[in-house]
Design a protein that fits this description.
Length: 206
């Protein structure tokens, strides 16, 4: 999997502007923002991962994928919510996954359109789906569309990393975090990626 075309330029500019970024980029030279390629899987994985640890999410996802046999909208739309709950999903998340699958099956969601749309327009379309809030939509922008300038202020990992590296351990308010992110524009996705790596060297993919 190749890094996005902008990756090397972003790393160079972030490193030259910010010593923390320079150190993190040097520490993880092989980090790449991968792309699973499938919009439905990216969104489904993000829903599964909401408000739980990476390890727990991976375990639940493995059981869910085994149940579905193929993580595709038609398969998931036909699954029984009780069977989904047995995978470790909450009833609410099970419902969200079935609803998401329905949006794909009846083409209320058409991913091909998103490549030509601004970030906020894609977010607005995604959050119309039950269970998809701004954080989940931003994960989609990062991991599927691989947009370069996403700064997910509601992400706990990003909050922890900025606290650790810039604020002496004090967790920033959303406003403070948003303001902090301005220093990393127009490459806030890349900055987020390396800040995540500083907490967990295992590369996360949705």
């Amino acid at each position: 999997m190749k890094a996005p075309a902008y990756w090397d330029t972003a790393c160079a500019e972030l490193a030259s502007a910010d010593p923390v970024m320079a150190a993190l980029i040097a520490r993880y030279p092989d980090a790449i923002l991968a792309d699973r390629g499938d919009p439905f899987q990216t969104l489904a994985r993000a829903i599964v991962s909401q408000q739980i640890s990476v390890k727990a999410a991976d375990s639940i996802w493995a059981r869910f994928a085994a149940l579905a046999e193929a993580v595709a909208p038609e398969r998931v739309a036909a699954l029984d919510p009780d069977a989904l709950a047995a995978c470790g999903l909450s009833r609410r998340k099970a419902g969200y996954l079935v609803d998401l699958a329905g949006h794909f099956v009846d083409e209320r969601i058409q991913p091909a359109r998103w490549k030509g749309m601004e970030d906020e327009a894609v977010i607005a379309e995604l959050i119309d789906v039950r269970g998809i809030g701004r954080w989940t939509a931003e994960m989609f922008l990062i991991f599927n569309l691989r947009r370069p300038d996403v700064w997910p202020v509601d992400d706990i990992g990003l909050q922890k990393a900025v606290a650790l590296h810039y604020l002496g351990g004090e967790r920033p308010t959303p406003k403070a975090l948003r303001q902090h992110g301005e220093r990393h524009a127009p490459w806030r996705t890349v900055a987020t990626w390396y800040l995540w790596r500083s907490l967990d060297p295992v590369v996360v993919q949705y």
